[in-house]
Each structure stands twice: as structure tokens, then as C-alpha cells.
């Protein structure tokens, strides 16, 4: 009696399509003789050390900031929350680039003020940058958990004579461990897949070594390394699926009223974080803009970025509609949707490696824009699916029934009710994909047709050539894209994460 | 002894509590009642130190807190019983009651007294609502507070449980000999449990007095309505007696009311006799069956509505005529005509 939802065949096709990169990597890696050598061990150690330090750092920064933004009644609460969450929207290579250029002997700060500053490179430098751009994951997940806790337990502990600090430590933190873990795993995932930061900081992690191998025409070795990286990614994803963020019975969350000087002190203590992650890149790019203007920059870079990203956004949304529809139709569809999420876990450099090989096998694709767009779509499809699905889910099924009962045909009900109501989600999804693609670096480096420079790849060439000053315009444009991404985040699906609770005395 | 003078609390630019003054004797239970949003929970939180105050002073034995000189909750030695019980979910009943105690004897005392002996090792999640409330009370009392705040402690419980638990809590508070402020929105609870009742309206105390006085001599129409069914009928006050369309009664003027006044009638102050069509002085608007009695709303011939409680044996349908008469002999509150 049950007819399969019409979206299933299409969704299945798209899901299978999303699995192509892994299949390709297996085929490619089987050519290589070396499974694992001592150099590999070093790369593995570097990757894990960077991941470990980043997770540690992002928890140490993210949890106190979550407590501050969730519970303290400080002036301009929402503003501070946005400031502290903003690094999430910035690609970390921007931070790595500017931090690298600003500090150290001969760095911009040294040049400008004469004050010698320590240089940032290698493991400490990469860990610092990754921490600065991944702690918002911990901040947001922890904050959501904190806000879901009812205040009365802390109040009970305090009226029973426990100090505030001890109450937070003993009564609050044990209940948000899962929220912290969820954020920490996201930070770990992001660190594993990031290419720009370890590359700029010259730390031999999997992503950097894959790129080196690729440039040395060791494609099958790059594939082998990619598979090894994917194993670690899969492990983290598995852990993530095991973390259950428990929601307690909703209640009014705790609000603390720190005195004015105490709020000031707390904000001052947290100031270095946004200063380093946001103000520093802006300052450095601004400095270069003043010093060198738009030298070397061509408008075609911005146009290339926009064009490729726009194509990717359109394709992603078109593919997302059947997948999202399948996801809300049944369990099998839900599984297909999960499979398309796979691409999100595949680091850009790995996706690039796989698709380069696809290009080599299918000459009509080699060195075409289509291949690059394909990479974007495979990587960022989940963003579009999530956006479309959430807007379709919020669509009350009885609305379509009501339209049908009023005499509309299924087609009319779709075009006059379903479509207008889900359009917002589709546009939001397209915008998310667009902005992500604009900032994508590693896959673009590998797959961009010869002579096809985007903002991100141009920034990379500038770094490689050492003409740092020329990064001003593309850098600022990328920061602007990040700002738009943040604005989208604030108005879209994740808006609720930025609500400042109105939990005052009633 | 607790004393509160000129306590005000602002939330943003809204004044939630406005110049509250009260003092509590050593083992007195004060019931704070008022409609939703009147500031009763805010007062409790301010007394416990959980929210900052904008004005005034709270003094309790060793400490004294003001807007400039706040005292953190953990330094106040104030006990609080929460509406949702606030039991630590990861601790057993005994561990909850023992929370910060070195001496277990007192915890055992209250666990036994409140009949929780068999549940010592149970986790809160396995307890019923009534049991949770007893644990919360035992935990608060075992920590020997000098003063106890109860925030609608019975509002999450079944009606059947409320009656018993209400008295259990009162007896436990009296046994511990500590003063308490008990917030509720249930007027029956307020009148029956407390030594004194404070009626709040928009952050201000409308009346603070014994339950009897608050009920029979309310300081305002608001208090009169809040503490029970109230009807006001026009009359004329002269030399301590009020003359109305349905009879005379001794009157106690509120705010110096005199001449043309409104008389406060409770449903038990009036008798109701069904009469044949065309007779009597009013017509039944609606009837509510309450089991042991019936509550009638009667529209008098001058248009005033009066609520009357009569025996369940009295039967009359809406639309039929009745004869009402004031039957009380004790003085009734009289308000200026509005």
C-alpha cells in the first residue's frame, strides 16, 4: 500500500554520487607500494598533536566565554556574543596568514613599533591559529547546553551555602560535559580538514603533505595519505555520533548580575581573543591597503570566485531539494541524506585529490570549471540540504492538505503553498554554499583550471611568492564574505543560538 | 528576626518590587499572595540574594544587605524551597539532604521526621512529586537556615496531595521554629496555612495582616476579590449600618467611606429562596454545582450581580426568580462608591 516517495530515486542517485570521491581514492591508493613509513608516523603525530592542542585551547577559551555570554548580565550582551562567535565565519588561513606576517622579527608589528615580538610558526603557531578560529564551536554548543539548564539547582546550591564558583564547577559543569564534547569534536574535525593554517605555519600535517605530494606528481601517495586522514576523520565523526546532548526540562536559565567593574574585568580578560582573530587581520590588511593599494590585483579574481561559487550554489540547491524531501519522507531517505553529509567530513584537499584523478580519467572534465564546481557541490551540499530541510520541516503538513481540500491540484498546492514557504530556506542554503565556496582554498588550488585565480588562490600565491602587501584587497574581500556569512548565520537556521534569553525576574 | 525596609527591585526600567516593608517574628509564617506578575517570586529571589536590589535594606541577624552592599546568597544562611524542587539529579535522597553538612544527625532527623527513611538511597528521578517536595524541605531544614523562603512549593503537585502536604510543611516549619515566607497564588492556601497574609499587587503590598482581617476587612476591592468570591452592592451607610436593596447589615467603613457606598458581600452572607415567577428581587444568571453546595450568580432587579452560596438542596435554574436577603450579623466591609 505504501508507494515510495517520488524523491527517493533522485536522492539515492545523489547520495551514491557523494560517495564517488572515496571510491576513487581507494582505486588510486592501490597503486602505491608504501602503506605507512616513518615519515607518515611523523605526519600522524603532528596532525594528532595539532588536533589535541586545538581541542584543549578551544575548550579553555570556549567554556569560560560560554559561561560569560550565557549567564552574566553584561551591557550589550548580544553584541559580545556576536563578537565572540564571529571567528567561526572566518577561514582560518586568513588568521594564519596575518598572524604569520604580523609577528616575529621583521614582522609588521616589529616594523611599525620597533617592539620585538615572538614569531608564530610550526606546531605552537598552528595550534594558536586553529584555537582562535575553532573555539566558537565549543562556545556555541556549550552555551546552548548552559541555557537549557534550569537556574534553580544553582540557586539551591548557593542558598545551601556553596559559593558561586563551586556551584558552577560542581552543579553546572557536570551537566554540560556533553555539550562541551560536541563542540570539541567539531573543533577537532575542522582542525583535521584545515589546509591553509598548517601549510602557512609550515607544520607537516596530513593536509599539507598531501598537497606537497600532489605537487610532486605523487598522486597515488597523496591518495594513500588522504585515506589515512579520512580514517581519523571517520573516527572523530563516530565519536561525535555517540555524544548525546541531553536537554533538561526547560526552565528559566541562570542570570548573574556582576558588578560593573567585574563585567569590565571579564570583558578585558577575553579581549585578546577577538583582537587576535578579527582585529589583527583587519588591521594588517588595512595597513597593506594603505601601503600598497590594489597593486597586482585583478578584478577577474573576484569575478572568477563569484562565478564558480554562484554556479555551485545553484547546483547545490537544485540537488538539495530532492534529498531534503526524501529526508523528511522516511527512514531510508534519512539515510540517503546522511550519506550526502559525507562530503562535509571530507577535507577539501582530499576532495581535490580525488577529483583531480577523476579529471585525469575523464578527459572532458579535466581542467574544466565543471570539475571545480563539482567539488564545491560535493563538499557543501549538506549546507543546502540542511537549510532546505529545516524550512520544509517547519512547513505544516496540514497546509498542503488544506490547499487540496480547497480544490487545488497537487501541482497547484506545491507551487502556491509549499514552494513559497520553502523558498526562504532554498535561498538561505544557496547563500551559505556561495559564501563557503568563495572562501574555499585547497580544492580550488588543486582543481582550478590553469590561469583561473580566485580570491583565495590569489591570496595563496601572494603568500608563496612573499609579496604579502598584495594580499590587502583579496584579504579584505574575503573578510567581507565572512562578515556576510556571519550575518546569514545570525538570521538563518542558527538564529536561535544567538538569542539572548530574556530571563529576568518575573 | 527578618526586617525589610523600602526594598525595591528594578528589571531594566520596569519597577518589579516597589518599596516593600515588612518584619517577621521568630517562628512566624508569612504568606505572600498575588496574581501572576505581581513580583512575589522576585521578592523571594531578592531576599535570597539571587538578584540584585535597587533600593532598600534587608537585615537578618548577623548580616544586612543593601543595593550598595550586596551579600552573596551563600553568606545569608537563608533556606529556599523551589517550585520545581531543585533536587540534584545525580545525588541520592540522603546525599541531597546532606549536601553541605558535616554532621549527619540533623539530616537523619529530618529524613525520619518527613517519612523519607525508606527512600534514602533513591535518586530524585524515581520519586513522586510529593516525595520530591519532602526531600527538598528536608534538605533545606537540615542545613539549619535562620530563615526559609518557599516559592510556590505545592504548585507542581496534584490537588489531592496539596492538602496533606500543606499541613506537613507548616508543622515542619513550626517544629524547626524558623520564620518563613511562603509564596503562593492559591488563596485558600494563603488563608489556611499562614500566620499572616500579604497581598501583593504590581510590586506593592496592598495589605499585610492576619488571614481573618484580610478576608473580612480587606483594605481594597482588589484584596477583597483576590481572597475569595466578592460581590459589591450599592447601599447607604449611616451610624454603622448599611441599608441595601436586599436588607441591612452592620458595616465597617474602609478609607472613611460614608454616605453612598458599596457593601462587600461574600457568598455566605446572603440567603437565597426560589420564588414563583414575577416575585422576588432577582433572577438567576448562572449556577455552578460544587458538590456540597451550589454557587448562584443572581442579577438583582437594579442590575447588580451578587454571588450566593446555598445548600445543594436548593434547586433553581438560570432564568428563574429568587428572593435574596442579607443574613449576616457580623460587620461587613464598606467601600466608597466608585
TrEMBL record, chain A:
UniProt main location, coarse: membrane
Subcellular location: Cell inner membrane; Cell membrane
Gene3D superfamilies according to UniProt: MetI-like (1.10.3720.10)
Membrane topology, from the record: Multi-pass membrane protein
Keywords, comma-separated and alphabetical: Cell inner membrane, Cell membrane, Membrane, Transmembrane, Transmembrane helix, Transport
InterPro entries: MetI-like (IPR000515), MetI-like_sf (IPR035906)
Every ABC transmembrane type-1 domain range: 44-240, 302-489
PROSITE patterns cross-referenced by the UniProt entry: ABC_TM1 (PS50928)
Transmembrane segments: 45-67, 79-100, 120-140, 172-192, 222-243, 264-287, 307-327, 339-358, 364-381, 467-490
Keyword Membrane part of the UniProt annotation: yes
Similarity-based family: Belongs to the binding-protein-dependent transport system permease family.
Protein name stated in the entry: Iron ABC transporter permease
Automatic annotation (TrEMBL), chain B:
Coiled coil (UniProt feature): none
Gene3D superfamilies hit by this protein: P-loop containing nucleotide triphosphate hydrolases (3.40.50.300)
CDD domains: ABC_Carb_Solutes_like
Start and end residues of each ABC transporter domain: 2-227
Superkingdom field: Bacteria
ATP-binding is among the record's keywords: yes
Protein name (database record): ABC transporter ATP-binding protein
Taxonomic source organism: Gilvimarinus algae
